[in-house]
Write a structure and sequence with these properties.
Elements lengths: L4 H13 L8 H4 L4 E4 L5 E3 L4 E4 H6 L3 H16 L2 H4 L1 H6 L1 H19 L10 E2 L2 E2 L12 H17 L16 H5 L3 H24 L21 H12 L5 E3 L5 H4 L7 E3 L2 E9 L10 H15 L1 E10 L3 E7 L7 H4 L11 H9 L6 E6 L13 E5 L11 E4 L4
């Protein structure tokens, strides 16, 4: 019995929405408009709406491959690729498109490794699209940097970097760019709401608290004031107390029936600020942002000694200040860096120089090679559109504003 392309598409999409593996994407799949026409060569999205070519759909080998393509477009929407990575696209459109597709296809294959419900499209038995297992767990920016390096090496050897790992879909950057600021803001809010609804839907279907395995929860973060989190962390490590309060009675005396005030304060003896000075920190002027964060902290807290340690793949500079001299910090500091990104060098430097801070605050975009082994409490202040949580110490997220 003949089934129209439109009916086939609808049946596959509904099947995915009812699937335990992909129910998390169901609200995202319903976001925006979906159209099938002869004018679209493959498939694409502007970050809100989805467009599919009729001939392209009919040329796919089976419904599992169609399901993969539908999930692929939905993942572009969930990750807000077409509105977040415009800067990367302006640097190299081709590499950006590849990086986005590698990021998505890796997650989809991991969500259904045995291809029970979706299957990556194939041509002549080979995968058609961008996929490399080595990119598992990488951020889009890390993939982009790696592909750029590969392209640079190919060009230096008079080889073409184009055509390797070509994607099976298009990306409607012009359509995304045509959205007004209000539409982009509304889309961001709608996507976040859809992700939260999808996580609940997945849990109801027995996918567990972590959702379906697509990692969509990583794409949203609860808006908690980073400065409040910093205060909480600093108070836990603060060694010098300045005044007393009855708000929290001294628990050491409670067993004797004696109520005494607790000493609290906003002073620290010694702190390390370690701003990431690698090349990626110049994207969106992130280095300037983290330096301003350091200034905000020192205005709010009294710190006897401040170490500023600039790093990339190695420590580039070490400056020392007090709270008072730090007020002229921006006129005296000399950031040194621009190479790789490995905070291990900071941990090793602190140990080698016998610096004993109450905590070290590493200010970075989180796109690092490794995290290091720390002998002092470490607080990661991450400035990035994508929330990246360090596996060691505590992580707070700083808005890119």
């Amino acid at each position: 019995m003949y089934v129209s392309t439109e009916r086939r598409f609808k049946a596959v999409k509904i099947g995915l929405m009812r699937s335990r593996k992909f129910a998390e994407l169901s609200p995202i799949m319903m976001l925006g408009k979906t159209s099938i026409s002869d004018d679209i060569p493959t498939a694409c999205t502007n970050g809100r709406d989805e467009f599919y070519g009729k001939e392209f759909i009919e040329g796919l080998n089976n419904d599992k491959e169609l399901g993969f393509v539908i999930c692929h477009e939905s993942m572009h929407k969930a990750a807000r690729h077409l509105t977040i990575y415009t800067k990367l696209h302006s640097i190299n459109p081709h590499i950006t498109n590849m990086a986005l597709d590698y990021w998505i296809n890796g997650r989809l294959r991991k969500a259904d490794p045995n291809e029970t419900e979706i299957a990556m499209p194939r041509k002549n038995g080979e995968y058609f699209g961008c996929y490399d297992q080595k990119y598992d767990g990488w951020t889009v920016k890390q993939i982009f940097d790696d592909l750029m390096q590969q392209q640079s090496q190919s060009q230096s050897q008079n080889q073409s970097g184009e055509g390797q790992g070509e994607g099976f879909d298009e990306h409607d950057w012009d359509g995304a760019k045509a959205m007004t600021a209000e539409e982009v803001k509304q889309l961001s809010d709608d996507v976040k709401q859809a992700i939260m609804q999808g996580k609940e839907a997945a849990k109801r279907m027995g996918a567990g608290s972590s959702g379906s395995g697509l990692g969509l929860g990583d794409l949203i973060k609860v808006k908690v004031s980073w400065i409040d989190q910093l205060w909480e962390y600093a108070r836990a490590t603060c060694s010098r107390k300045e005044h007393s309060t009855w708000a929290k009675p001294n628990r050491r005396m409670l067993h004797q029936g004696i109520y005494m005030p607790t000493l609290v304060g906003k002073s620290l003896r010694e702190v390390v600020f370690a701003p990431d000075a690698s090349g990626s920190m110049h994207y969106k002027d992130r280095l300037t942002r983290v330096l301003s964060v350091m200034k905000e902290i020192t205005k709010a807290m009294n710190i006897d000694k401040i170490h500023v340690i600039y790093w990339d793949g190695a420590v580039g500079a070490h400056e020392t200040y007090t709270s008072s001299t730090f007020q002229q910090f921006e006129y005296n500091t000399k950031p040194i860096g621009g190479g790789g990104t490995d905070p291990t060098c900071v941990a090793e430097y602190i140990k080698k120089e016998n610096i004993k801070p109450e905590f070290a605050m590493v200010l970075t975009d989180g796109e690092v090679m490794s995290w290091g082994e720390w002998t002092v409490p470490v607080l990661w202040a991450v400035v990035n559109d994508t929330p990246i949580t360090a596996p060691v110490g505590k992580t707070v997220f700083i808005d890119e504003e």
